[in-house]
């Protein structure tokens, strides 16, 4: 197998694009893909202040690395869910990348802030662990932007994450998510920080190859609560389809984006307020997070630990 660009020995074959590439050309290909996605979908403006939510996994750490390499200076944020073994190890990987990039990372320790880990909180508020986690993450990601003056939050969701979520939304006809295009580009209405996913056209396999080729030290284990998640089943099914017809995932997602952009969505005309507890934008007097915490008597203090390499550069 020869590299399509230089004729050297190829290390990866990308059937969706009908090409094979050597290590160097694959790394450039992937970085270029991220750059083009940002430009084509106008994900980042010149004056944006960027912060990336990193989990310690291959996608978010690679994306943080790529963005800074491409000149999009992004700081990091990490949510420590207090999961034994897993959280401490992922935080280690995050700090390592923060040192390499010389960019600060804001760390939210759930245990310190709310006195409980994610499992205990989910039991207390009577939700599944992942549902409680999603709610808390959304809130904390916006809070770090509000508190530390960032206006764009970046996540490392890749093509496989987005197509499996799209499949789930289609199977259950979750209309509230389907027509908003927000699943991928997440256009929030004012007030809340913009959320972008620059890897939405890069597959899981490509990201794993990129991380290995660039020597990115990431946590291999998945969160223990992801075991049995429906999204994993959808990913498996989509991979089987992709194996049979390379390029299907890309077409599925691009087609969806085109379709969703032509679909008119009813705007919520209810006026925006600010939460009387925490100042977070909401359409009622208290934000969802504060309402749930109050209802179940969970008290806490939302603070971020700032970790930074001493030779940090700013910009
Ligand atoms: Fe949170 Fe883990 Fe569930 Fe993901 S799998 S939503 S990180 S608890
Ligand atoms: Zn609030």
Give a structural overview.
The chain is α/β, with parallel strands linked by helices. The chain has one domain (31-307): HUPs (Rossmann fold), CATH 3.40.50.620. It has twelve helices and ten strands. The strands form three sheets. A six-stranded mixed beta sheet has the order 7-6-3-4-5-10, with helices on both faces. A two-stranded antiparallel sheet has the order 1-2. Strands 8-9 form a two-stranded antiparallel sheet. It binds iron/sulfur cluster (SF4) and zinc ion. Residues 275, 277-278, 280, 286-287, 289-290 line the site of zinc ion. Zinc ion (ZN) is lined by residues 275, 277-278, 280, 286-287, 289-290.
CATH architecture: 3-Layer(aba) Sandwich
> Could you describe the largest sheet, including whether it forms a barrel?
6 strands, mixed
Shape: globular
Beta-strand residue fraction: 5-15%
> Average pLDDT value?
92
Head-to-tail CA distance between termini: 42 Å
Estimated radius of gyration: 20 Å
SS class: alpha/beta
For the largest sheet, list the strands in their spatial order. Answer: 7-6-3-4-5-10
Question: What is the number of beta strands?
Answer: 10
Bound molecules: iron/sulfur cluster, zinc ion
User: What is the CATH top level name?
Assistant: Alpha Beta
């Amino acid at each position: 197998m020869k590299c399509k660009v230089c004729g050297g020995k190829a290390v990866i074959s990308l059937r969706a694009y009908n090409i094979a590439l050597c290590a160097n050309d694959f790394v450039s290909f992937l970085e270029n893909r991220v750059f083009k996605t940002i430009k084509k979908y106008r994900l980042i403006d010149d004056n944006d202040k960027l912060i990336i939510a990193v989990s310690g996994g291959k996608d978010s750490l690679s994306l943080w690395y790529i963005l800074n390499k491409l000149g999009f200076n992004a700081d990091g944020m990490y949510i420590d869910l207090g999961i034994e073994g897993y959280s401490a190890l992922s935080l280690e990987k995050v700090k390592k990348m923060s040192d390499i990039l010389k960019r600060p990372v804001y760390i939210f320790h759930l245990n310190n802030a709310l006195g409980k880990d994610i499992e205990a909180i989910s039991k207390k508020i009577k939700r599944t662990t992942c549902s409680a986690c999603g709610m808390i993450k959304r809130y904390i990601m916006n809070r770090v932007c509000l508190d530390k003056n960032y206006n764009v939050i970046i996540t490392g969701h890749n093509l496989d994450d987005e197509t499996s979520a799209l499949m789930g939304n289609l199977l259950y006809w979750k209309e509230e998510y389907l027509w908003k295009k927000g699943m991928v580009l997440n256009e929030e209405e004012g007030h809340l920080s913009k959320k972008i996913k620059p890897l939405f056209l890069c597959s899981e396999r490509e990201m794993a190859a990129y991380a290995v080729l660039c020597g990115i030290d990431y946590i291999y284990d998945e969160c223990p609560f992801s075991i049995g998640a429906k999204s994993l089943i959808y990913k498996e099914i989509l991979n089987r389809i992709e194996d049979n017809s390379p390029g299907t995932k890309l077409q599925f997602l691009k087609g969806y984006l085109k379709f969703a952009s032509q679909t008119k969505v009813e705007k919520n005309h209810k006026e925006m307020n600010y939460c009387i507890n925490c100042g977070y934008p909401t359409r009622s007097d208290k934000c969802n997070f504060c309402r749930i915490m109050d209802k179940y008597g969970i008290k806490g203090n939302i603070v971020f630990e700032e970790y930074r390499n001493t030779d940090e550069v700013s910009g």
